[in-house]
């Protein structure tokens, strides 16, 4: 069964304290791995797509990396405005051929000034 | 419109009543998705519409749930005889195709069944 597990569930950092969020996945053929940011009361906002092991993407203080079993979202020198829930999702190759995503439960990040 | 619009933003209903949730996707997006986000749970896929193709209903949890998409645009998710376990945030997303990087989510409808 296709599955996505994120850790930790919650993370508290001081402003400037770098860290990483983990996303482990098992999928019958990876079509893509996605990172989203979700603020309270809002829908998820797209951050990155990764397609193959070894791929990296960067955006401001965030960098996403991908291996055959997991992805990391590295946050360098975070600021309070980076506080949010970060969601990881995978899209699997399958007979249905849809854009359906399988999401992890998310990591809630709090960055204190 | 500029984004995916969902209405209502909040809905409180009594157990056993029917509810309708509306999603207005981004103009020109052919794919539309419904997801459910329960407290402490990840987003759960419900249903997918793509153009004129038959929808993928594989995620609908029971026959009390149904959805339609009229004219390739607006979609309505209907929950009949609501139960307390239906309480969740229902999120709609749209994209140009079945490639998920194009997903844009709405802000969701928070449904509370009392």
Please give a quick description of this structure.
Chain A has no helices and 11 strands. Chain A has strands at residues 3-7, 10-14, 19-26, 30-38, 45-50, 56-59, 62-66, 70-75, 84-92, 102-103, 107-112.
Could you tell me the radius of gyration of chain A in angstroms? 14 Å
Q: Identify the quaternary structure here.
A: heterodimer
- Based on secondary structure, the structural category of chain A is mainly beta
Distance between the termini of chain B: 33 Å
Shape of chain A: globular
From N to C, what is the helix and strand string of chain B?
Answer: EEEEEEEEEE
Number of strands of chain A: 11
Runs of chain A in which pLDDT lies below 50 for 5 or more consecutive residues are: none
Q: Given the helix and strand composition of chain B, which structural class is it?
A: mainly beta
* Largest β-sheet summary of chain A: 6 strands, mixed
Low-confidence stretches of chain B: none
Q: Specify the helix fraction band of chain A.
A: under 10%
Q: Report the average pLDDT across residues of chain A.
A: 93
Order of helices and strands of chain A: EEEEEEEEEEE
Total DSSP helices of chain B:
0
Q: Count of helical segments of chain A?
A: 0
What's the total count of β strands of chain B? 10
Characterize the overall form of chain B: globular
Question: Per DSSP, what share of the residues of chain A sits in E-state strands of 2 or more residues?
Answer: over 45%
- Give the largest interface pair and sizes: A-B, 24 and 29 residues
């Amino acid at each position: 069964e296709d599955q996505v597990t994120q850790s930790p569930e919650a993370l508290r950092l001081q402003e400037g304290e770098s860290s990483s969020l983990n996303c482990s996945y098992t999928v019958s053929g990876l079509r893509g791995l996605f990172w989203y940011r979700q603020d309270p009361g809002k829908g998820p906002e797209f951050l990155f797509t990764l397609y193959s092991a070894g791929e990296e993407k960067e955006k401001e203080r965030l960098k996403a990396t991908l291996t055959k079993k997991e992805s990391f979202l590295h946050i360098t020198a975070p600021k309070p405005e980076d506080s949010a829930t970060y969601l990881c999702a995978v899209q699997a190759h399958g007979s249905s051929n849809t854009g359906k995503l399988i999401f992890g439960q998310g990591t809630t990040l709090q960055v204190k000034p | 419109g500029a984004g995916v619009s969902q209405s209502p933003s909040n809905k409180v209903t009594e157990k056993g009543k029917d509810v309708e949730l509306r999603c207005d996707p981004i103009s020109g997006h052919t794919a539309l998705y419904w997801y459910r986000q329960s407290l402490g749970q990840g987003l759960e896929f419900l249903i997918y519409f793509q153009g004129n193709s038959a929808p993928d209903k594989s995620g609908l949890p029971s026959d009390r749930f149904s959805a339609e998409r009229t004219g390739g645009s607006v979609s309505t998710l209907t929950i009949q005889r609501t139960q307390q376990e239906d309480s969740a945030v229902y999120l709609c997303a749209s994209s140009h195709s079945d490639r998920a990087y194009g997903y844009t989510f709405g802000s969701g409808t928070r449904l509370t069944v009392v």
